[in-house]
Amino acid sequence: MTTVAGRTIIVTGASAGLGAHFARLYAAAGARVVLAARRVDRVEALAASIEGEGGEALPVAMDVGDADSVAAAFDAAEARFGLVDTIVANAGVSMVGRSTDLSADAIRQVLDTNIAGVYLTVREGARRLIASGSRESGAGRVIIIGSITSHMTAVGDAAYAASKAAVAHLGRNFAREWVRQGINVNVIQPGYIQSELAGDLYQTEAGAQKIAAFHRRRLQPVTSLDPFMLLFASDASACVTGAVIDIDDGQSL
């Protein structure tokens, strides 16, 4: 029941890291995948790789903070694959620095991408789903990628953590608003994973100390998210909406 074969899934922030991994996961499982990012050359290369392995993928340019860019990406997806029935709002940025040092521009970039970008992406997809009859089909799926930092405290990531706390609540509000519209909205909050967003942090002494402080003394593998990414995009999650779930290898305990 967790099959996603035949679904059309848009993944934002698909040019690297978690987004690229999710795109490959869904394509391998039989979904038509729309790869959305600002770095078009990267999603073009990823799409070529996926199609070379027998999958279906479409690279599209998208700036999640620009409503017109978001709409254009959905237009391109529909022109190639038809209605996008699953939206994975993964795009995000992090600006590390003490709250007293972070610039106003850096704060705005985090909030614009991580909150407004999620809002605009999910809203655009939901509008089209509702117009297409999702109330009757019950086929709409939205997965928002949050973070366990939404309920933790640390030095250096206040803006990022606040943005992830905001999208966790935003996801529940979207779920409530569309509960009768056939659209399920769920939030997955990963723990610390080696990704492009983290850069070389975990290769530094500070990063090694951070890993040593985790209960299991290890980073979380990206594949640990796969079962839930498939579940929340499939018919098996028909009765799951408004969930905010930590998948973090016990890091936040």
From TrEMBL:
<dbReference type="Pfam" id="PF00106">
    <property type="entry name" value="adh_short"/>
</dbReference>
<keyword id="KW-0560">Oxidoreductase</keyword>
<dbReference type="InterPro" id="IPR020904">
    <property type="entry name" value="Sc_DH/Rdtase_CS"/>
</dbReference>
<protein>
    <submittedName>
        <fullName>SDR family NAD(P)-dependent oxidoreductase</fullName>
    </submittedName>
</protein>
<comment type="similarity">
    <text>Belongs to the short-chain dehydrogenases/reductases (SDR) family.</text>
</comment>
<dbReference type="InterPro" id="IPR036291">
    <property type="entry name" value="NAD(P)-bd_dom_sf"/>
</dbReference>
<dbReference type="InterPro" id="IPR002347">
    <property type="entry name" value="SDR_fam"/>
</dbReference>
